[in-house]
Amino acid sequence: MDHPSESASDKDPSPPSDGPLGRASWSRRWMALAVAIVAGVGAYLGMADRSSAARVVVGVKVPADQRVSFDQIDHTSWHELLQTYVDEAGRVDYHAWHRSPESMARLDAYLARLSSGDLGLHDLGIQSTREGRLAYWINAYNAVTVKGILREYPTKSIRDHTPLLGYNIWKHLLLQVADQQISLNDIEHEVLRKMNEPRIHFAIVCASISCPRLLNEAYVAENLDEQLTRNAKQFFTLSRNFAIDGSNHRVHLSSILKWFAKDFGSHQAAQLQAISPYLPNDKSRQAVAATGVRVEYLPYDWGLNERPPE
């Protein structure tokens, strides 16, 4: 007969492994373990089912022979919607947009137009210029985000719609492009960030006050560099994104520069040098170039980037 080890817990000694009582006790333990495993697997599958059911697809599936280069996508309708509902500060009149069936339909039609872009993933794929791809994906990110907010409107923050379980705008609101369904997370992290253009972080907008302003014009390939530079410069004029404390050798930066620091350089000096051309004046540029400057990050306001009622 096996006996409990002397090192076993006094509170829960192991029963003998033989004899009817010992066998019954171990059977109960194995049964409880099996039930726990089955319950855990069921819960995991249940969460997966809910996530799958939460998926929302915008856009349409376009036959391969009707797809075009990203350079050929017409962003005019998106531009006109932005001109109508977004002010110079990037604040959006979601209320009026939401109340207009025509404008809601125009947004859906634009998303369907985005679906005709060819990803160029196969040998016969239609190739696009780098500027055309950047403009396309920046517009796509912003248009899908606006669509996501309008689906939930009225709402106070996009973070009210990004839970760990169930529908999450960033993960489950998907744009159909060619044969793929692409999330906002994928557009940002798997497409745009891999194009090595850090100014995207001053162009893509997560519908929040501390985000960059939503430019009230569509990004287009021929004006892209000027548009990215203009929005980057405007970003750093706002005290919620940039401030200097010269007496204490401190620079205060938007949390965006913390979350995506490596996109601007491998170390702090390189990151500060990367943003220097977009800072508002010589004093600011001297502050970030100063020896021993310390960087602190500003709180992020996730409130909705909504235009105040007039």
Overview of this structure, please?
This protein is mainly alpha-helical and 310 residues long. The chain folds into three domains: 15-54; 56-234, no CATH class; 242-297, no CATH class. It contains eleven helices and six strands. Strands 1-2-3 form a three-stranded mixed β-sheet. A hairpin with a 2-residue loop joins strand 2 (173-177) and strand 3 (180-183). The protein is globular and about 60 Å long.
Features:
mainly alpha; 3-stranded mixed sheet; 8% strand
Short description:
Helix content is 43%, strand content 8%. The chain is mostly helical. It starts with 19 loop residues before the first helix and ends in a 13-residue tail after the last strand.
Q: What topology, given as strand order, has the largest sheet?
A: 1-2-3
Given the helix and strand composition, which structural class is it?
mainly alpha
Fraction of helical residues: 40-55%
Low-pLDDT sequence parts? 1-17, 41-50
Number of domain units: 3
Question: How would you characterize the largest beta sheet?
Answer: 3 strands, mixed
Strand-residue fraction? 5-15%
Let me know the average pLDDT.
88
What is the total tally of β strands? 6
Rg, Cα atoms, Å: 26 Å
Shape annotation: globular
What order do the helices and strands follow?
HEHHHHHEEHHEEHHHE
Oligomer: single chain
Distance between the termini: 85 Å
**What is the count of DSSP helices, taking H or I runs of 4+ residues?**
11
